[in-house]
What does this fold into?
Amino acid sequence: QVQLVESGGGLVQAGGSLRVSCAISGPTFNIYDMGWFRLAPGLKREFIGGINWSTGNTYYEDSVKGRFGISRNNAKNTVFLQMNSLKPEDTAVYYCAVRIGIENYEYWGQGTQVTVSS
It folds into this structure.
């Protein structure tokens, strides 16, 4: 069973940077991709980007494109979400998740709070 443990996040001023990590344990050979999501109070969960597990290709939603970057440390089975030029509207709980097929994300991290002050 795949398990995801997030770390990082915290409080930062607008314009600053933070990095969130997602450590993966368990079988990874059949992972299709890892997605990153965020959930802000009063809003729906938002997909912000992901990384294809076999190719390493990354993709981002417009709301974070050019500011956020996803990378992977293959040896340590860890994926990073680097967040730059943070805005107060980026304040949310951030989650990593993986899926085996191309439909539902089946395994989720516990989430980590990111708060951006103005």
